[in-house]
Amino acid sequence: MSLVVPSWQVETRNKTSVPFGLAALAAFLLAFAIPFLVSRGVVQDLFFILTMLVLAQNWNLLAGYAGLISVGQQAFVGFGAYAMFACVILLGVDPIAAVLIAGVLSMLLAIPTAFFTFRLQGPYFAIGTWVIAEVVRLLLAQWKALGGGTGTSLPRDATRDMIGVGVMRDVFGMKASEAGDALTYWLALILLVLTVGFVYRLLRSKQGLGLAAVRDNEQAARAVGVNARRMKALVYLAASFITGVAGALIYVQKARISPDAAFSVIDWTAYVIFIVVIGGIGTVEGPIVGVILFFFLQNLLAGYGSWYLLMLGLIGILVMLFAPRGLWGLVSDRTGIQLFPVRRLLRGGSLNQVHKGGPHG
Amino acid sequence: MNWLDTIVQGVLLGGLYALFAAGLSLVFGIMRLVNLAHGDLIVLAAFVILALVTTLGVSPFVGALMAAPLMFAAGWALQYFLLNRTLGKDILPPLLVTFGLSIVIQNGLLEGFSADSRRVSAGSLESASIALGPVNAGIMPLMTFLSAVAVIVCLNQLIYRTAVGRAFRATSDDPVTAGLMGIRPQRIFALATGLAMVVVTIAALYLGTRANFEPTSGPARLIYAFEAIIIGGLGSLWGTLAGGVILGIAQTVGAAINPEWQILTGHLAFLLVLLFKPRGLFPRAVD
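^ inputs. structure came back:
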């Protein structure tokens, strides 16, 4: 008599994930070719969508997975942008290189920031991050070399001679301004793919499982050995790096900065929160759905000024009350589709039936 | 005696910040809800007072007296119909709903009153002052401070000496057990928010008469209120007054050195307290 050793496997793949992966690859290739296919205005709109989506994925990682509800992410957008401007204007660094430096500096800023804000519990953490963003804004508004309170512009030469612009001009015959837009667009696309890849990898890793455990029950997670504080701090640092890079990239494209715009709580936090909440917090798909809806609403209602923001606020409140897992949550609950599956399924072994977990896996 | 004057102005300004904070502190103490729209509700109340003063031609004080019951009703309904649905173990829904509310109020006010800076005129009281020993103090700032003290005395009396206050404290400690004793937590929460809105109206009276305000002034008021609470330590209204005073002094001293530094030095004072006394200067609550 031989004992059959069951060979169980833990995997997260599901029916839709493989076709979706192929579709995503095709979409990425198409997105890459966009600057050759459409006008400059459309490229700029798409750049805006991509960067908002990067910010939304970051905020979702913080709030939806690490339980760090920040209303002060504009601190890192603004700081990253100012760091990039300082590198370009004061040190003569190439804007593209300055974007990366800005990300590193933003992460460094996050260390003292976390030191203060992590002392505040729960809801007070949220306002604490806001205070930090105000402090950074007020300090940078004192920096006269970068225009003080009124702000400044990137020198024209700097953006015209960026790494890559020359090559694109020669190879594709683009004008300097066109090439600049295409370049920032491609960088935003790469940043988005890397961000989604990073978030998804993190969630499927052991650390991600720990993070989900902390979110669901911090005490129980700590009891089985998850270092909740360390996990949260790492997520906070990673998010500030990516947010800083995104902020710097946005302002390479804008080429004009002022403290009020760079640290705008509406532009860099309120919109981002609505995108994530309406799309579906705590999923990778949610912000993607949210940003598409956000873009359509904006084009539809842009002429109505503050009515538009008022509507967005109302929709956000209604979604939070009646569909707290957002539009994607509604779709996913009804169809069971998960494009970025993170739920672990047990397969193989002596049990032939497929285990199906609950909606929260 | 320039410095003494600066400090006295700072103390009086602190009274205004304590008024901003008292309502926020009351709501947090009873239902652990941080209302991110608190600052915008103060600005909303200021616009209500402004509308009453301009349409009826009454004095701002009568205007505030008329606005108070309106704001109480608005706060009661807001809590009962909206915010009560968000309360629970998860802190995300109340934060995001009140954040959304903040955006809704700001943009509603922008549509209704335009982006112009407004001010409620208090007539001759605005420039009147009396001598306090070697320094002169304006009547309005002095009234602000005394109102803050009066509000705190009244709230403390209410919370620790009355049946309603006992219900507040019981619900704060354990809503389920309080429910078994015949208290309806939902109504207690609504009553507390209504009360907080009355305090907000008093704060709005002094905000509106003391300086210019506009529809987007709310978030900064929320931040000052929050800083006063954290500096003073959670759970103590007198601590909140002390926190407001420290914040006020830091701001006026900063402004005396360089007018651009007023807000910044206030924030820095807050960060210093957070650095050395993370639980505030006069902590009382355990959580």
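Chain A has one domain: 35-347. The CA atoms of residues 5 and 241 of chain A lie 46 Å apart.
thumbs up if we can close this ticket
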